[in-house]
Design brief:
The protein has about 800 residues and is of the alpha+beta class. Helix content is about 20%, strand content about 25%. The chain has an eight-stranded parallel beta barrel. Strand 32 and strand 33 form a beta hairpin. The relative contact order is 0.07.
Length: about 800
């Protein structure tokens, strides 16, 4: 038997007489050609099921040419026809179980072989007894009756007009590729590796190589597979429904990695929708919208990192995060692999412990920055393949950098090809439009109360952690998920079953997601972007909390930036805004964010928010970073702010790297700020007092939090062993000589202190004022401490002091 060529290219020509056959067959072929000349016509977007659809003459499954010495004998099998109504349902794409009709089936009188090959001229079946020709019934359905009821091993020989016969395996003779356990777990909403069951998978079934497809579309009356392999005409590739699961499945022999495809959904309303695969693990690069068959051959080299991560205690470890938008961080780097050559070294140079990537999932509109996701399981093809993204993560790990990815389960776009009304009816979104519509972004919210939708999202969170070794998920827009009245006026929302505004389904989903991720992925941390007073965001789920590891401290960010934006002469009237965060600092486990949201849409860059001339703006910027790095909580800084770029971020331009070039007049000023960030991170990482007791009040004590008139703050941070670090912030442009600050006692040690960091140092672009010699702590009680010392406080600066 001739081996298959998966490329579909003929291996040897077939003599014309073998294709044409007898004059009678040629005449029959011409009649069939005439009868089928007006085939379906292709149309974009929704269309009526009975509308024609334009298509080029398709092939079918990936095939091989038949060598010249393959006999195409004259035997024509008796017909094994189907009732015309069944054929009509099959050909129109509205049959729920095409496998019960197609393939090989024992019937009265033998074994029926039925093959659906639209536009084919002839179809033959070849068994160990040789080839035999099938008869065309209607609509591309070819049938024949073999002698005997034992199902034979066979292949197909398919000839299209003007082409050579192609040898193909029959995908309709294979059993379902989803097992009973898969279907049970999906129905229960507990298939934690859902991507291994649904979507597309290159595999071998009964010795035949091909690709298995499976999609959840419970409201569809029929689903067909369309793609480049059948010229986007799905007539020959109807999928079967796996009962009440709502899943449709098909195995197509010969299809391999790189195949592009969609699902042709036939709705109960009579429409036909072409939809991308919700669980596709690769997608076309936008503006293309098709899904792509993929399989991974990547070999990870981060075993040491993963073992260390599994033992990590994040709340008692340093975490300094650099947030970036991959596509615009370095616009000249246009692939994941090119970024992998530069980003890890840059982060190492600046001593960041983690990087946070704005969403890398596929999205149709670049201007959404990735926050309107169409392909939840596919890294964006704008920068390369899924394995290329794996390489980037692997390289970051080997450089000691953790990777956090923004994840968006709050909403999804309405694009026709994606999740919206996936099978013609609300499926991933709630049926009630008052709950489905997200008023802020013109998108749709997920139906968190639906078992299969929760499974889709929970498994997706696990997917990124297991398949791409992601170390953390920053969950976007959590507040919009938790409240039914979020951004909605009265009457535009419906209360929960208790009459409240809380979205109980969303809260339950978040608990399930966090619990599942922490159980399956040791060492991974989840972070909530949540801006309200919802209780217990970072409390464990078994104690009634949502279960996040960290929460963005939006209150600290807002209040502290309001304070810093004021002229120093007015800051005394806003002093509570710089100190209020300590009132609730231990109510949750916090990360302090200066994120992308704070440097876009007219909000200005961080340095441009600061008052005063250029020198004062930079000094304020540096003092603020010193305060931020010493405040309880982890830190996050968006790209470009580490060197005080003056412009807002734009996704098409990226950071203003040129301000660091020697030709730029103020390049030394920008380099100075970047040196400060480098030293802040290094000193922070090496000083346990700044992170070891982040989540407990034992790690912090005010020295003087009430010096509003002088724009001063001073406090102590403590390590677990009691080692102190003193931070003093002077948010006034006045140099203060002889300012007394209380200092903790050092026991039997010599009572000497030294500057660990001074944001006014000349190396950072400051004036160089400070305390260059060891500071002797005198036995003068001050600020509630047994000792104190007189310090020189530089203008608009933060000092860190440690025992000498």
């Amino acid at each position: 038997m001739t081996p298959l060529d998966p490329t579909g290219r003929p291996t040897r020509p077939v003599p014309a007489t073998s294709v044409a056959g007898t004059p009678e067959r040629a005449a029959a072929r011409e009649a069939d050609e005439s009868r089928r000349a007006d085939g379906p016509r292709r149309a974009d977007g929704p269309r009526r099921a009975d509308e024609p659809r334009e298509a080029d003459l398709p092939g079918s499954d990936a095939s091989s040419g038949v060598p010249a010495d393959t006999p195409l004998g004259a035997l024509r099998l008796p017909e094994a026809p189907l009732p015309p109504a069944e054929v009509d349902r099959l050909v129109s794409g509205q049959h729920h179980d095409p496998h019960s009709l197609l393939g090989a089936h024992p019937v009265h009188g033998g074994t029926a072989i039925r093959v659906l090959r639209p536009f084919a001229e002839r179809v033959m079946v070849e068994t160990d007894q040789g080839p035999a020709e099938l008869t065309h019934q209607q609509g591309g359905l070819f049938t024949g009756l073999l002698v005997g009821r034992e199902l034979p091993d066979y292949t197909l020989l398919v000839a299209y007009p003007g082409g050579e016969p192609l040898r193909q395996h029959d995908g309709y003779r294979t059993p379902p590729t989803l097992g009973e356990l898969d279907l049970h777990l999906i129905s229960e909403g507990r298939h934690e590796q859902l991507w291994q069951a649904l979507g597309s998978h290159v595999r071998t079934v009964d010795g035949v190589a091909g690709t298995a497809f499976a999609v959840w579309a419970p409201n569809a009356v029929g689903v067909r597979l369309i793609g480049d392999f059948n010229h986007w005409n799905g007539t020959g590739h109807p999928m079967r429904s796996l009962g009440s699961s709502g899943i449709w499945e098909l195995f197509v022999p010969g299809l391999a990695e790189g195949t592009t495809y969609k699902y042709e959904i036939h709705t109960r309303q009579g429409w036909v929708l072409d939809k991308a695969d919700p669980l596709a693990r690769a997608a076309q690069c936008p503006p293309g919208t098709a899904s792509v068959v993929t399989s991974s051959a990547y070999r990870w080299q981060d075993g040491e990192w993963m073992a260390r991560r599994a033992r990590a205690a994040h709340h008692r470890a340093p975490m300094s995060v650099y947030e970036l938008h991959l596509a615009s961080w370095r616009p000249d780097l246009t692939s994941y692999r090119a970024i992998a050559e530069e980003l890890p070294r840059y982060l190492q140079e600046l001593n960041f412990t983690h990087v946070e990537l704005m969403p890398v999932m596929e999205h149709p509109f670049g201007g959404s920055w990735g926050y309107q996701v169409s392909g939840y399981y596919a890294p964006t093809a704008r920068l390369g393949s899924p394995d290329d993204f794996r390489h980037l993560v692997d390289t970051l790990h080997r450089h000691g950098i953790g990777v956090i990815v923004d994840w968006v389960p709050a909403h999804f776009p309405k694009d026709d090809f994606a999740l919206a009304r996936f099978d013609g009816e609300p499926l991933y979104e709630p049926a009630d439009p008052r709950r489905a519509e997200h008023p802020d972004w013109g998108t749709l919210e997920f139906d968190y109360g639906r078992t299969e939708v929760r499974n889709f999202l929970v498994a997706n969170a696990v997917y990124w952690c297991e398949e791409f070794h992601i170390d953390g998920l920053r969950v976007d827009a959590v507040a919009s998920m938790l409240y039914l009245d979020y951004s909605r006026e009265g009457g535009a929302w419906t209360p929960n079953q208790y009459g409240g505004r809380e979205n109980l389904d969303a809260a339950s989903f978040l608990q399930e997601m966090n619990a599942t991720v922490y159980r399956r992925c040791p060492g991974v941390i989840t972070v909530a972007e949540e801006s309200t007073a919802w209780d217990g965001v970072t409390r464990p789920t078994d104690a009634g909390g949502l279960g996040f590891g960290l929460k963005w401290n939006m209150g600290w960010m807002h209040d502290s930036l309001v304070y810093m934006s004021k002229e120093p002469v007015h800051r005394k009237y806003h002093h509570n805004e710089i100190t209020f965060s300590m009132v609730y600092a231990y109510s949750e486990n916090y990360i302090l964010p200066i994120s992308h949201d704070e440097v876009v849409h007219g909000k200005q860059s961080l340095v441009s928010k600061m008052p005063g001339d250029w020198w004062q703006q930079r000094a304020n910027h540096r003092a603020y970073l010193g305060f931020m790095w010493s405040h309880p909580g982890k830190q996050l800084l968006f790209m470009g702010q580490e060197f005080a770029q003056g412009a807002e971020w734009h996704h098409e331009q990226g950071p203003q790297w040129w301000v660091l070039d020697e030709q730029w007049p103020a390049h030394a000023d920008h380099l100075g700020v970047r040196r400060l960030v480098r030293d802040l991170n290094r000193t922070y990482r090496d000083t346990p007092a700044l992170w070891e007791l982040d989540t407990t009040p034992d790690g912090f004590r005010w020295l003087d939090g009430g010096a509003a008139e002088d724009n001063l703050l001073s406090f102590v941070r403590y390590a677990a062993d009691g080692t102190p670090l003193v931070a003093v912030c002077n948010f006034s442009p006045v140099v203060r000589h002889g300012h007394r600050v209380g200092l903790p006692g050092l026991g039997g040690r010599e009572q000497l202190w030294e500057e660990l960091l001074n944001t006014d140092a000349e190396a950072y672009g400051g004036s160089g004022i400070g305390n260059s010699h060891p500071i002797k702590a005198e036995p003068v009680e001050w600020n509630g401490q047994p000792r104190s010392a007189e310090l020189v406080l530089p203008p608009l600066a933060t000092l860190w002091l440690r025992p000498a």
